[in-house]
Amino acid sequence: MSETFLPELPQELWRAGKLELAHGVQQSLQVIRMATAGLGRYLAEIESRGVKDLYGYGRTASWFADIAGLSVGEAGAVVKRAIALNPTRALDGTEVPAALPATAAVAAEGLVGDERIDQILEIVKKLPAEDQANAEKILAGLAPCAGPRQLARAEANLLGLLDPDGKEPKDPEPKEPRREITLERRKDGFWKLTGLLDDETGARTAAALEAYAQPRPVDEFGQADLRMKCERMGDAWVDILDLAIACPDQPGTSGYRTLVHVTIGLDELKSGLGTACLDFVGTMTAREARLAACDCLMLPVVLSAAGEPLDVGRLRRFVTPGQRRALNIRDGGCAFPGCHRKPKNCHAHHIVHWADDGPTDLRNLVLLCGFHHRLIHHGDWEVRMAADGLPEFIPPQYRDPLRKPRRNTLHHV
Predict the structure, then answer these.
(1) 297-303 and 259-262: which strand pairing?
(2) Which one, of 383, 357, 380, 378, lies nearest residue 285 by Cα?
(3) Which end of the chain is more exposed for a tag (fewer CB within 10 A), N or C?
(4) Residue 175: what pLDDT?
(5) Single pTM value for the model
(6) Rg, Å, the chain Cα set
(7) How many helices (H) and strands (E) does the chain have?
(8) Average pLDDT taken over every residue of the chain
(9) Using N-to-C axis directions, what is the helix angle for 72-85 and 114-126, rounded to 10°?
């Protein structure tokens, strides 16, 4: 074994160049590892002779813990590693070979540290006894240049070659996956969603949410998406719910995004003042009811001043499947300038609201994603149908003093 010494440190280390710093770290690490390997040889010899006879301790780990100022658990890991790397002797004096002789050789050169030695030891234990020696040589050859992932991959390859069928499963039938969802309404009107998913379902849920939680592209005004990731994930959950509810086979909704029971008078609904009840589970503002009513089933319930139902309107269907297909073809997605969202993520918005006697035909409908649908209802943007039958958007004056109409050119080349 060649001797390696620490490089002489400059008196003013801050003057050292980056290569000198890197070389200093590498040489220091090699010296530490070589010293640790030498320590292991001493501990293996003490274990062979018997620490009780030498020092009166019951275990080598207990003695070393006192000497090094370590806990017994910490000292035990060092002793275990030393015994694995070095030959010892049994009570009758016969030699017990090292479990990891090839790894011991690279450790003595300072080329591998404790973490990789422990990883190799755990891998070798999993292999059949007749294959351990060859596998250990392979892993020891990889260890100086490999990280934990590379060794884990080598372990998988070795197990696949030596035991392609794997261990026989203990359970003949797979267990039912455990899934739990709890949904409760808080006093402040928000809903708290908690759950527990099995690994496969959790991975599928994460993939679906990540796909819809990507930041919105910077628009033509240079406005970036400022939502935090948790907010984008929440909005992605809404998009996925919309897709599920829009399925024609969805029980209870028959492909309609929302069923709204409006428990306010139509005049209040038109003015945007007052409150409405959403499916009898809580209140919502009349403005929110107007937004939801663009693309849903609306069941108006007219109440008297005392709250007595005077008339329950008939369920009316708004945007037909044929109209929706035509909208998808015409707009190609969210029609708001610069938006990339596809038709499946969009709502059918009434330019002139149906509560204001707006007709449900193509010249009064436009596709909008959830974000831009809300922006049109609650912001200062305006949408209108141009003379050529395509929607165009008029920005607020603070964005464009001339309020020049704009269109989305991303969906059609």
Answers:
(1) parallel
(2) 378
(3) C
(4) 63
(5) 0.41
(6) 36
(7) 14, 13
(8) 78
(9) 70
DSSP codes of every residue in 285-347: EHHHHHHHGGGSEEEEEEE-TTS-EEEEPPPB--S-HHHHHHHHHHH-S--STT----GGGEE
The 8 Å CB, 24+ separation contacts for 283-287 are: 283/189, 287/377, 287/378
What own/partner pairs with CB < 8 Å and gap ≥ 24 does 147-152 have?
A: 148/115, 148/116, 148/119, 151/116, 151/119, 151/120, 151/123, 152/119
- Is residue 292 within 8 A of residue 279, CB to CB? The reply is no
For residue range 333-359, list pLDDT tens digits in order.
999 988 888 888 888 888 887 667 778
Question: What's the pLDDT at 266?
Answer: 53
For residues 119 and 151, the answer to whether their CB atoms sit within 8 Å is yes
pLDDT band at 246 (very low <50, low <70, confident <90, very high): low
| CA dist list (Å): 312 to 299, 302, 303, 316 | 7, 6, 9, 12
**Inter-residue contact 208 to 240 (CB < 8 Å):** yes
Q: Of 326, 301, 329, nearest to 314 (Cα)?
A: 301
